[in-house]
Design brief:
The protein is of the alpha/beta class. Helix content is 37%, strand content 21%. The protein has 15 helices and 18 strands. The chain has a 6-stranded antiparallel beta barrel with strand order 10-11-16-15-14-17. A hairpin with an 8-residue loop joins strand 12 and strand 13. Helix 3 crosses helix 4. The mean pLDDT is 95.
Length: 477
């Protein structure tokens, strides 16, 4: 995946101090570089002597063309003084990318009563004109460059913009139709394309079976690497060498199909035709690919695959997701719930040093390929993109890992703030029993991303919408 690109378009107005604006242009650039985000910054240097957006010395068309050519994913308009609101709005409109509006808080007036910047006043003006141009934007509270609220707001904006850029370029590799009995996995492929531009690339189980057989019989470096990974990370004593080779070959085949089709995620019909045809379960292959930032969802869950891409993007792709059933309530904790699936959670999340590669414990075939292990607890985000009747929502909630009884498959017990509230919201929809988890606080970024995705409404249960907005304004700092 290409590195995230941020357009950096600092702005000033002619009636205020050009020298002070230039000073802040440099200071703000240095500050955002110090945040350690994995991104490239595309500035305005070379377009004029100052590298600032102001008046008509360089017009909106030139700036927009410059940033378009660089293929920026979002644009930041720091107001180094009052700023030039009309040009900011024109550039934002022309780019059609997420926009960040912020300016550094002003110092006291000089001894003679003059003010150097009037930044806050300019922010009011630009906000209004952006609305006139129908440009959605993110606003961070007027604060000093070293204020933690600026760092929080800026880093959250970049994460949200990363969600938007990956959502807008989504293609899901669908391997096989949904299992016949899983009506919950129905999705409207045409509507996903028409409304969100999300493409589905379907292939059959025969396609993946033939590709796996070809790879299994060969001697490719990819196959050898996948086998070595399984043997080094897993206790595979309960399966055969042939099983390990076939599971590794399936993993390679799925990855090759994802690469060749330009797919960001995979939704696979993981049972029961696949194990009948190939003699293995795909669970471990799914787990390894998810660890490699190609999330794979079970039971051909297209909406789950979409959720997985969004959630990992909200962490700037620094953490793996896990795809789980919401299964049973904790036997003792009234707010506890079991997150489970047959064996597809990323190996890197396991609490065991060498989790077990086993035969499936539910199906009569007992085909090998499940990765059984408890995964680590800690703070998590749980999310679900879903919809029906033409309306789509993004469920958001936070959880933390807790102790609970042993079970089979991939699993972790979690506690939430008010499980009966969660349960009612999930049952009444538009959601299903599948969710995507990640060991990070991805909620503010996912919430912010929704304003740039027309037709998608955030649906936070904990924290509430008001609490998220307060957090973005600096609550708790």
């Amino acid at each position: 995946m290409k590195k995230f690109k941020l357009g950096y378009a600092p702005t000033r107005r002619f009636v205020f101090s050009a020298e002070d604006a230039f000073k802040y242009k440099v200071m703000i650039r240095e500050k955002i570089e110090s945040f350690g985000l994995d991104m490239d910054i595309v500035d305005l240097e070379g377009l004029n002597s100052e590298g600032l957006l102001y008046d008509d010395h360089i017009n909106a068309d030139q700036i927009a063309a410059h940033l378009k050519k660089a293929e920026v994913d979002a644009v930041f308009f720091p107001h180094c003084n009052f700023g030039t609101e009309d040009t900011v709005a024109r550039v934002g409109k022309a780019l059609g990318k997420p926009v960040l509006l912020w300016g550094p808080r002003d110092e006291s007036p000089l001894e003679d009563g003059m003010r150097l910047r009037d930044t806050q006043c300019g922010l009011f003006a630009t906000g209004k004109v952006l609305r006139r141009f129908n440009v959605p934007f993110t606003y961070v509270t007027n604060s000093r460059v070293d204020d933690p609220v600026f760092e929080r707001g800026f880093t959250n904006f970049v994460a949200a913009a990363n969600v938007v850029r990956q959502f807008r370029n989504l293609r899901i590799l669908q391997i096989g139709p949904r299992p016949a009995s899983f009506w919950t996995m129905m999705c409207n492929e045409g509507e996903l394309l028409e409304r969100f531009g999300i493409e589905i690339h379907p292939i059959t189980l025969v396609d993946i079976q033939l590709a796996t057989k070809r790879i299994e019989k060969g001697t490719s470096a990819e196959l050898e690497e996948a086998m070595a990974y399984i043997k080094s990370k897993m206790d595979y004593s309960e399966v055969t060498e042939e099983d390990v080779r076939r599971i590794a070959a399936l993993k390679v085949a799925m990855k090759q199909y994802a690469r060749s089709t330009g797919s960001s995620a995979i939704a696979i019909q993981c049972w029961s035709s696949l194990q009948d045809a190939m003699g293995i379960m795909p669970c471990l292959a799914n787990a390894i690919l998810t660890d490699e930032q190609i999330p794979v969802t079970c039971e051909t869950d297209i909406h789950g695959a979409i959720t997985s891409v969004m959630v990992q993007a909200a962490t700037m792709n620094t953490a793996p997701t896990f795809f789980a059933d919401l299964t049973v309530r904790h036997p003792e904790n009234q707010n506890g719930e079991l997150l489970f699936h047959c064996g597809n959670f990323p190996v890197s999340l396991s609490v065991e040093e060498k989790p077990k590669l086993k035969k499936h414990f539910l199906f009569d075939s007992h085909a090998p390929g499940t990765h059984e292990s408890q995964i680590k607890g800690g703070q998590m985000t749980l999310a679900r993109f879903d919809g029906d009747h033409g309306e789509y929502q993004l469920f958001l909630g936070k959880a933390r890992g807790i102790e609970g009884p042993y079970t089979r498959g991939s699993w972790v017990w979690v506690e939430v703030n008010d499980w009966p509230l969660w349960e009612e919201k999930l049952v009444k929809g538009p959601y299903v029993h599948h969710s995507v988890g990640i060991h990070a606080n991805a909620i503010p970024a996912l919430y912010e991303a929704c304003q740039y995705i027309p037709g998608l409404t955030p649906d936070p249960v904990d924290p509430t919408e008001r609490e998220i907005q307060a957090w973005l304004r600096g609550a708790g700092l």
